[in-house]
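Incident log, structure service

09:12 report received: a user says their structure output differs between two submissions of the same chain.
09:20 pulled the input from the user's history:
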Amino acid sequence: MGPVVADGYRRLPCGRWRDNVAWVAVCSGVGRACSAPYVVSAALCGAEVVNMADHGRYGGPRFAQLDDDYKVWAAYQRAQLKKEKLWAAVVTDRPASSSDDKKSDPVVDAWDAMNEAALATIQMSVKPVHLNTVTSVDTAKEAWDALKVMFEARDNAQLLRLMDELSSLKKGDDENIIKFASRAKMIRDELAMLGNPVDDNTLALRVLSGLPSEYGMLRTVLENKDTKLVMSDVTAKLLQVEQRSIFVGASKPSGSVKSQAFAAAAPKKPFDKKSVVCFYCNKKGLMQRDCYKKKADEAKGKGKSSGGGQEGG
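09:34 re-ran on a clean worker, output below:
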């Protein structure tokens, strides 16, 4: 590393050249050219690098690039820009020049440099899907506001969907209490991420309102309590009712009581005498016990052996 020169610049020798272009390390969160954030010029004998000792080292974003979780990204990005003393470019407009057109205004020049650095920081901290949003503007403030508006619109649509899901929450026929309560908690967690937390009492009431009729007695008792409900306690009580219902259902015979009662009350099919055949004389419409021929034969003492035959009908 070369000696310190005037105005805080260092001259570094270039270690390698290729196609007359210096290979220089650019500090973008991965590599560093000593302690400097970027190379401002390169010559055959070396590269001139800005010494940022007075402004703090810039190591680039240390957090995940923006994809979907805007709120987390915005918190980290705000802290990063404040650390690098670039946040003013996001919350202020470009100052008007106080000098004539022929002379540069140091205040405006300083703001322009700050805006350029802040905009580059924001552009490097988003994933490719959002690059067009932050590269089609000229200031860090415009880039920040464009991302905020885009994600707030998406969050509002998602918020409406989740609120509708919570208000119409119903337990499915094939869903047990554990799955039902977990689904309700998942909706609550997503609402909290969007900045709309749901308290335990409200969530418990929504779960109770979505239960079927077999939980009616417990629901009435819990809804009329004079203290706020705790979701974990409500879930435990609902599990007791569910287990009792499963035990009672397993001990019942196949077919419901209602269906059995209906079968018992159903009218019987009327008896059709014409379909009967006497096993003694083979005549239709007559049972063996009423057979006149059989009775006559028995009176004469020459009754036929029935051979174990069954009576007709």
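09:41 both user submissions now match this output. Likely a transient worker issue. Closing.
09:42 reviewer note: The first helix runs from residue 70 to 83. The two ends are 118 Å apart (CA to CA).
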